[in-house]
Design goal:
Elements: E1 3-9, E2 14-20, H1 26-33, H2 39-42, H3 48-60, E3 64-71, E4 74-83, E5 100-106, H4 117-128, E6 136-139, H5 146-155, E7 158-165, E8 168-176, H6 177-183, H7 185-190
Parallel strand pairs: 5-6
Antiparallel strand pairs: 1-2, 2-3, 3-4, 4-5, 6-8, 7-8
Length: 193
């Protein structure tokens, strides 16, 4: 199990890490997609066979990378980091070449409501900003998902406008590198970044 990015988060006193998702993770991710706190927003609560086709397509899509997020080595969340260029979202604003976007879910219910969402999101955005040409990370949470919009705002994302995507009405949100680094400069220092 090769960890792509890992930091110790002082706010939760836990190590947060991300590894690339693999084909053998499909059952786990499928189970998460069928959880009551996930399927209203992801709408991927398909049969296993249909979801596996979707997952295989996502794994082979070169404009995105799928990750599993971990807390102290325990896999508990699913992430899609993508280049906005080549994504349906590029029609919603004028993206720069290296703008990245993010989708996420906490799959394991015992991690819900315990303050993990913000540290996990902050770590993934920090990971995305490791690409030196990326100056903006974009999110488009379902407009009904007020909790997640609030977490994005706390992380440093600014709501731009509601947008209509094929599968949902979303809130377009931007996180600029300079704002993110100013907001979390102390955490960067503690993590040695």
């Amino acid at each position: 199990m090769s960890v792509e990015f890992e930091v110790y988060d002082e706010t939760i006193k836990r190590t947060i890490g991300f590894r690339k998702a693999r084909l053998d993770d499909v059952e786990l991710v499928h189970n998460w997609m069928n959880e009551d706190h996930v399927h209203p927003f992801w709408q991927l609560n398909f049969s296993f066979e249909r979801f596996k086709e979707h997952y295989l397509h996502a794994l082979s899509d070169t404009h995105q990378t799928l990750y599993l997020g971990m807390v102290d080595g325990v896999v508990m969340s699913y992430w899609e980091a993508y280049w906005v260029k080549g994504d349906i979202l590029e029609k919603s604003y004028t993206p720069k070449t290296y703008d990245q976007g993010i989708h996420l879910l906490i799959g394991e219910k015992e991690y819900l409501g315990l303050g993990y969402a913000l540290p996990l999101l902050r770590t993934m955005v920090r990971f995305q900003f490791q690409h030196p040409a990326t100056a903006k990370v974009v999110a488009e949470p379902d407009i009904r998902n007020e909790k997640m919009i609030h977490i994005f705002e706390r992380c440093g994302f600014t709501p731009i406008s509601p947008i209509q995507l094929p599968d949902k009405e979303a809130m377009l949100m931007f996180c600029e590198r300079s704002d993110f680094e100013k907001r979390w400069k102390d955490e960067y220092k503690e993590a040695g970044l």
